[in-house]
Amino acid sequence: MRRKLVAGNWKMNGSLAQNAGLLDAVRGGMASIPNVDCAVCVPFPYLPQAQQRLAGSSVKWGAQDVHQLEKGAFTGEVSAAMLRDFGCSHVIVGHSERRAYYGESSRLVAEKFLAAQKAGITPILCVGETLEQRENGTTEAVVAEQLDALIQLGGVGALRNAVVAYEPVWAIGTGKTASSAQAQAVHAFIRQRVASHDSQIASGLCILYGGSVKANNAAELFAMPDIDGGLIGGASLVADEFLAICRAG
Ligand code: PEP
Question: Are 42 and 238 a contacting pair, CB within 8 Å?
Fold first, then answer.
């Protein structure tokens, strides 16, 4: 049985003052939810604050992006080793906002994924289709291309102990959640695709759902056989809501 993981994606939100209360509340709340893993992916400047306030608790912390190379003349970028220096356990790669606004290709996302893993950080690989792609009937083809780019570059072994997040773009920040049946169908597709390479890796793969998960829809989504938790955007900024989602895990 796979353990549930609930990961927060704060995106570009927060301040030192606001984060303090949120981190402390999540830390305190998770002490009574021992059966679920929890991580918060914060903006880079707040990693020391997350580390300071969460160290020694069950709550892990991470970042929302990473550079694919180890070091060098890449002004403004952050390497996986730097994230490791601040105790990151997880990093999101290939979020749809990065793919859409910064032109990140599936190949680049795969490189970032492998760079994180090499540094001992668990990457959370985001995949998912736009509304247009869903309506065109190409959801599976889109998700397959995003997943296959990693398998081609790193081999299926890269997915051992890794995390994939299925995030339909039309459900992110829109209040429109995929139905549990819609999400389950894509999660099952992802697991089967990995199983076609290695069934053991597939059965251990943690596949999160992301897209307008709230306290009132989390339990139904998390009850589906191939949904192993959630990647939570907006609701991860509100401690009570986020903890209620964790409790549903
Ligand atoms: C996200 O940013 O990954 C996300 C799922 O956002 P939201 O929960 O706000 O839809």
Answer: no
- Over residues 32-51, the pLDDT tens digits come to 999 999 999 999 999 999 99
Minimum CA distance residue for ligand 1 atom 8: 233
How many whole angstroms separate alpha carbon 64 and alpha carbon 44?
A: 8
* pTM over cut 0.90: yes
Rounded Cα–Cα distance for residues 23 and 236 (Å): 10
Give the residue ranges of DSSP H helices in 69-119: 80-85, 96-101, 106-118
Q: How far is the CA of 132 from the centre of ligand 1 (A)?
A: 19
CA atoms within 13 A on the CB side of 106: 16
- Distance from residue 118's CA to the centre of ligand 1 (Å): 27
- For each of the domains in the chain, give its residue range(s) and CATH number, in order of start: 4-47+61-248 (3.20.20.70)
Active site residues: 95, 167
Q: Distance between CA 24 and CA 52 in Å, rounded? A: 11
> Using CA positions, which residue lies closest to atom 7 of ligand 1?
233
